[in-house]
Amino acid sequence: MQTNEFVLEIPYGTRDFLPSEAAEKRAIEAELAGVFARWGYDEVVTPTIEYLDTLTIGNGQALEPHMFKFFDKNNRTLALRHEYVPRIQMMVAERKRMSAELKKLPGFTVYPSATNFVLVKYDQAVALNEYLEAAGIGVRSFGNAPRLENCLRISMGTREENDAWFQAIKAFAEGRG
After folding, report:
1. Structural domains of the chain, count
2. Which residues have CB under 8 Å from 84's CB, separation 6+?
3. To 10 degrees, the CA torsion angle through 22, 24, 30, 31?
4. Are 81 and 49 in contact (CB under 8 A)?
5. For residue 160, what are the domain limits?
6. Domain check: are 167 and 108 in the same one?
7. Cβ atoms within 10 Å of 91's Cβ, excluding its own
8. Are residues 78 and 154 in the same domain?
9. For residue range 77-116, what is the model confidence (pLDDT) as tens digits?
10. Rounded mean pLDDT of 37-62?
11. DSSP-derived secondary structure for 15-69
């Protein structure tokens, strides 16, 4: 006698959260998000899929056999993210790059940061913020907040996004804005 037994399995490293577990998980996540927000961190949401080359930079080659891979319309290999380190490393590299660029501009003080944003002090921060808003670029101005007078908080984006806001800031600082 032959049995057609069908066993449902989920991929290794994943799990299902039943309703009560899901609610508890979301409550913990919300509490942690609140703590991070109070400390000035913004949320970073990275893509679920990446090009395989991006995910295997460094020692990721060992993980490649365990990744779920597929192809885009140009036949480039994509993979589901196995973790978020590469994207966060890109954000950190961008923050360092943009901090260095901003330090070159006269009148800008760039404060040390271990977050996903750069905090700068600039005597014309309020006018610069208005200029950036008019250009469709959003940064956070602290206005006259105690100890943050004339400070702007600039969140990191992609290299292209960062280059765009930097060029706008540079034009303003050089009197071309």
Report:
1. 3
2. 46
3. -160
4. yes
5. 87-173
6. yes
7. 21
8. no
9. 988 876 655 667 788 899 999 999 999 999 999 999 888 8
10. 80
11. ----HHHHHHHHHHHHHHHHHHHHTTPPP----SEEEHHHHTSTTGGGTGGGS-E
Residues 109 and 122 reside in one and the same domain: yes
122 and 156 part of one domain: yes
* pTM of the entire predicted model: 0.59
3-state secondary structure (DSSP) of residue 70: strand
Report d(CA 87, CA 159) in Å as an integer: 12
Instruction: Map tokens 């039943």 to a residue.
Output: 18
- Which residue type occupies 26? R
My answer on whether 162 and 122 are in the same domain is: yes
Residue whose pair of structure tokens reads 């940061």 in the numeric block:
113
- Residues 57 and 36 placed together within one structural domain of the fold: no
16 CB-near residues (< 8 Å, 6+ apart): 10
